[in-house]
Amino acid sequence: MRGQIYIFGGYTVAEDHSERSTPEVWRFDPASETYTHITDIPVPVDDTVALVHQDRYIYLVSGWHDTDNVDLVQVYDVEEDRWFEATPFPGAPVFGHAGAIDRDNVIHVCGGTRVVPPPAPGEHRSFAATADCWLGSLGDDPSQIEWSAGIDVPSGAFYRGAAYRDFRAIVFVAGTDNAYNYNGIGYNGEPSEPRSDTLTFIPRPADLRECEAPRIRAGRSAPIGHWGTHEGIRFMDIRGVVQGNIHGNTRTFALGGMGANQTVRDTVVELPRFVMAAEDTVLYALICVDPPVVGSDPNQPRHKTFISPANHEPL
User: Fold this and answer.
1) Is residue 118 part of a domain?
2) pLDDT class of 219 with cuts at 50, 70, 90
3) Distance between the two ends of the chain, CA-based, in angstroms?
4) Cβ distance 56 to 73 under 8 Å?
5) Is there a domain that residue 223 lies in?
6) How far apart are CA 128 and CA 239, in angstroms?
7) Does 175 fall in a domain?
8) Which pTM value belongs to this model?
9) Minimal CA–CA distance to 63: which of 37, 101, 84, 89?
10) CATH of the domain at 111
11) Dihedrals φ, ψ of 241, to 5°?
12) What share of residues in the chain are helix, strand, coil (percent, to 5)?
């Protein structure tokens, strides 16, 4: 972001296996290879999601704080070196989730692991990976988020993968469906294995939100988006990705992570780009029909506007 790399929080593990979330925030300058300690996170979190908005704000959505998840959305203002809170996350607080912001300034957050309360007094709580997705619309006020429920990940729970924007799609890559702590062994005692799929979510274009009833043809209301499934890259625990413009092309990379059999990786992998398929275009090529004018001939053809999702303009 602005030629700098920001590193937020994390956690430490003591000899007794207790964990502590760390508040430190570091800014790394690749040109000078120097680190600068900037303003700490007000409520330290780890396993959170960091999202960049307007090349100025970095949103930390939910995450783990010391002993439990939090529903906080903490926002760092790069220009003023200060933190403020935004509208809280509405779902069950999670850690190990993934997210990105689409072209219409909508946050997409999916997956993660929630805390399940003890079933009875004296028993232990448990952890459950989730497929839940949430959407958050951003407006002029960076502290206000209009949250709504999204469409769940179709292939089940998604944990410790990553998400990134590719053209109009939000890509969810890597990860696992079996939640674990730091060693790759699930809370259920079973070894976690990487997912075998990569998922793309094509959001409904903002134009169509303005073209719904009464103008949209009866029975043709648009869904909020559409999931696609592709071959996976089979590793997990990457938490995030690095995107950059190289010779005019946006390229996306994942560093390290954990592969099959809890093998820690030292590789850098370029992640795929996805071109919107024809069926995705058809999905949103809805027909908006002007309502009849009072007193006009009901048999007179009315003006039709075809909305193209590829360029968000009438055809």
Assistant:
1) yes
2) very low
3) 36
4) no
5) yes
6) 18
7) yes
8) 0.82
9) 89
10) 2.120.10
11) -130, 170
12) 5, 45, 55
